[in-house]
């Protein structure tokens, strides 16, 4: 293997890992200022809770929660515009971007009982019964 191949291979592996983990970046997503808010899924009894960090958003105006073809889809847009006048100069900062997160739902879950609430920058979506009837089954390992 050449020295050049040794130097470029780790970069290729890192690029591939980032692409696999975050998905491919497209010109459209970069141009639109897309971002991916942090999310977690936790189990609470038979329910699943999906928590998405969306600080500073007007969730009634800028966020949609939907069930679409077996997926819980949370999407919207953040818009933040600030202006400051100091010493006769105006400093203006504008940040915006769209986001979309989707989570596969179990087949028996419909959108009818799903509830969403927003508190202190965190959107929490409760999916009742997502884990109902699901038990972990341990498989014995034979030692020969």
Automatic annotation (TrEMBL):
Matching InterPro entries: A-crystallin/Hsp20_dom, HSP20-like_chaperone, Small_HSP
Alphabetical list of SUPFAM superfamilies matching this protein: HSP20-like chaperones
Domain SHSP as annotated: residue spans: 29-144
Source species, domain of life: Bacteria
CDD domains: ACD_sHsps-like
Family stated for the protein in its record: Belongs to the small heat shock protein (HSP20) family.
Full protein name: Heat-shock protein Hsp20
Organism: Mycobacterium lehmannii
